[in-house]
């Protein structure tokens, strides 16, 4: 397979500690995902080589799923050890190669490039290796890196001893690889029962009829998104549900965050959404603003959207871009937006800005 050889150009140095401290711990409380876990274990433990893609919007629990799956007894028995690569700190092919060299514990050799050291090792390795490439949309969408990153992951996937798990926003896995898509499509939100169970376990609230009613009302605004549920449950340790409801009505998505100096995708819903929104031009943001005013979505959007929003040029292409970053979802031919995303877009990119831009 012909692959472009990357130049070892100077860039920020990726160390073992850089990667180690970017890896989250497996969640201690994890509800409503048994069927997905069982499906993934069955795929990964087949005799034939299979690569698994875990796809979905920010906050849906892709990282947690990957970690829980990789720590199951069946997967650990087959692979003995898995290597987790936090790709949100690895911008391109060179960064990915540096990262794999670090997690594999390989050492530089005089006169050999990084890619040669990595590929030589993988060529002679006979033990089953499981790589988790988390947040792969970062190098996949980075500037002009797509072609080299595509070649890189395709070549890694070709080694018979390697199994890949990739987590990313989007509708399909990267490159020309026969991915097994977990859940057959994107990862769904939690069921109401699983969301309620997670909330009570994390918040340690006593389950009463009054508390259940207040949480159910709040959960309608959270749309059963796992990250939002976890963050609200953490707040519920300090604030009673009545005040939490009042604060939600005042602040909406701003309340769904953990207190820290620099927000991250695992601790702040707004931060996760804004990372995706930042990839798009103003007309795509205009489209997001318009869609946020449609809580029931757009039925048969591919037939109706251009008529509803004639001011948005190439609206169908814009929709596919938004689908690719999971800012919107397609359900039964309807274009939908999860409630936390919709609430954020309503405030940040409102319809009045859209109308003003079209004058």
TrEMBL record:
Residues of the Novel STAND NTPase domain: 28-169
SUPFAM superfamilies hit by this protein: P-loop containing nucleoside triphosphate hydrolases
Record-given protein name: Novel STAND NTPase 1 domain-containing protein
UniProt organism field: Tetrapyrgos nigripes
């Amino acid at each position: 397979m012909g692959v472009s050889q990357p130049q070892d150009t100077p860039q920020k140095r990726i160390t073992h500690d850089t990667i180690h401290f970017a890896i989250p711990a497996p969640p201690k409380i994890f509800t409503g995902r048994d069927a997905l876990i069982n499906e993934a274990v069955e795929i990964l433990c087949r005799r034939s080589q299979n690569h698994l893609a875990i796809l979905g919007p920010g906050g849906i629990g892709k990282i947690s799923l990957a970690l829980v799956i990789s720590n199951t007894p069946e997967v650990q028995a087959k692979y003995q050890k898995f290597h987790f690569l936090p790709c949100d700190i690895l911008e391109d092919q060179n960064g990915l190669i540096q990262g794999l060299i670090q997690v594999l514990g390989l050492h530089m050799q005089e006169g050999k490039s990084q890619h040669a050291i990595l590929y030589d090792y993988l060529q002679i390795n006979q033990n089953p290796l499981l790589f988790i490439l988390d947040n792969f949309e970062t190098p996949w969408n980075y500037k002009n890196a797509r072609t080299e990153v595509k070649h890189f992951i395709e070549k890694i996937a070709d080694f018979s001893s390697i199994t890949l798990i990739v987590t990313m926003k989007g509708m399909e896995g990267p490159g020309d690889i026969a991915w097994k898509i977990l859940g057959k499509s994107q990862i769904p939100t939690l069921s109401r029962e699983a969301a309620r169970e997670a909330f009570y376990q994390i918040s340690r609230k006593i389950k009463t009829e009054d508390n259940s009613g207040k949480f159910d009302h709040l959960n309608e605004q959270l749309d059963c998104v796992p990250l939002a549920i976890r963050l609200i449950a953490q707040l519920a340790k300090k604030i009673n549900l009545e005040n939490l409801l009042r604060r939600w009505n005042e602040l909406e998505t701003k309340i769904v965050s953990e207190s820290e100096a620099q927000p991250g995708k695992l601790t702040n819903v707004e931060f996760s959404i804004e990372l995706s929104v930042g990839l798009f031009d103003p007309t795509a943001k205009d489209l997001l603003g318009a869609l946020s005013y449609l809580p029931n979505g757009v039925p048969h959007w591919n037939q109706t959207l251009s008529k509803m929003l004639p001011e948005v040029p190439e609206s169908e292409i814009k929709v596919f871009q938004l689908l690719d970053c999971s800012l919107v979802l397609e359900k039964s031919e309807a274009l939908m937006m999860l409630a936390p995303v919709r609430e954020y877009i309503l405030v940040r990119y409102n319809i009045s800005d859209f109308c003003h831009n079209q004058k």
